[in-house]
Amino acid sequence: MNIAITGANGLVGINLVKQLLNQGHKVKALIHHGADIFDHLKADVMVGDILDEKTVVRLCEGMDVVFHAAARISIGNTPYKELYRTNVEGTKRVFMAAKKQGVKTFIHFSSIHALKPPAKGEPFTEEASLAIDAPFSYEKTKALTQQWLQNQQGNGMKVVILNPTAIFGPDDFKPSLVGEFLINVMKHKLPGIVNGGYNWVDVRDVVKAAISAIEKGEDGHHYILSGTWLSLADMTLLMEKITGKKLKPFTFPMWLAKTGLPFLYLWAKLTKSQPLYTSESLKIVETGNKAITSDRAQKQLGFFPRPIEETLKDTLVWMEEHGYF
């Protein structure tokens, strides 16, 4: 098939490009910059912006499938208007271009944060409502985008939405927020580990499910793609086991992390690193649901995530080989 991908040089995008090319598909990849990572890949690379109508129309010309992976991800330091413009308006523009060009299938990478978490102790499934009234801008824009896309069901182009948890894995060139966390731990650039955790999923498993959704995904349906819940402290211990290095910094309670946010911002500035601890990221790891299920994705898309130990090992090996630490 002829397949287009937005955000193609992100963690999801580059893994998607590779898997699709390996399966014999023709791939058109839209990026902002960083075309050098495609030097050894036989993809048709376009440099442009999803907010530019001419660019997205040209991207979608002659395509059978469009994967929309481009997005602004934020943990609290990006203005709402910027997030809305890219995540909501940008998605609408790509979607309308795809529809106009006769694309058969549109697959959108949303987020678990587009869904409102259930009450504590309850399973987190696709029955969860959209987080339209979320207090954080990123969550709200992803929810609004998903709401709009679900309303397009039955318009002649199949729309499938994916809700992954925290994605990480090899080929994390930018790197992603999770990638930044791993690098900072390896380089001893974090002042400490907060007492919290999250659900982590391998990018390769997410991409495999996304490709499966071309044929097996149902129009208007969304699929949660979750992996393994693990605390940040246990993640660090697992990194120590894999690398044989002493890494674990001090683990401090959540109340102390919240109180010390100004100092954590200062620490990030002094170490010239991205502030990974913000009010939003602390809330995320403090309330991370341990019962996120992927039953629908398992039954319909054949989604079965690999052990987190395998993902972490492969990621750290790749990062070391590419000089990230």
Feature tags:
325 residues; alpha/beta; Rossmann fold; seven-stranded parallel sheet; three-stranded mixed sheet; 12 strands; 16% strand; globular
Termini separation (Å)? Answer: 38 Å
Largest sheet data: 7 strands, parallel
CATH architecture assignment of the domain at 2-174 and 198-229 and 290-307? 3-Layer(aba) Sandwich
Coarse structural class: alpha/beta
CATH class category label of the domain at 2-174 and 198-229 and 290-307: Alpha Beta
The global form is globular
Distinct helical segment count: 12
Strand fraction band? 15-25%
CATH superfamily of the domain at 2-174 and 198-229 and 290-307: NAD(P)-binding Rossmann-like Domain
Fraction of residues in helix: 40-55%
- What do we call the CATH topology of the domain at 2-174 and 198-229 and 290-307? Rossmann fold
Q: What's the pLDDT, averaged over the residues?
A: 93
Uncertain regions: pLDDT < 50 for 5+ in a row?
A: none
The arrangement of helices and strands along the chain is EHEEHEHEHEEHEEHEEHEHHHHH
Fold and architecture overview:
The protein is globular. α4 (137-150) links the parallel β5 and β6. The model has no long low-confidence stretch (mean pLDDT 93). α3 (80-100) runs parallel beside α4. The strands form 3 sheets. The protein has a 7-stranded parallel beta sheet with strand order 3-2-1-4-5-6-10, with helices on both faces. Strands 7-9-11 form a 3-stranded mixed beta sheet. The chain has a domain at 2-174 and 198-229 and 290-307: 3-Layer(aba) Sandwich (Rossmann fold). The chain contains 12 helices and 12 strands. The chain is of the alpha/beta class and 325 residues long.
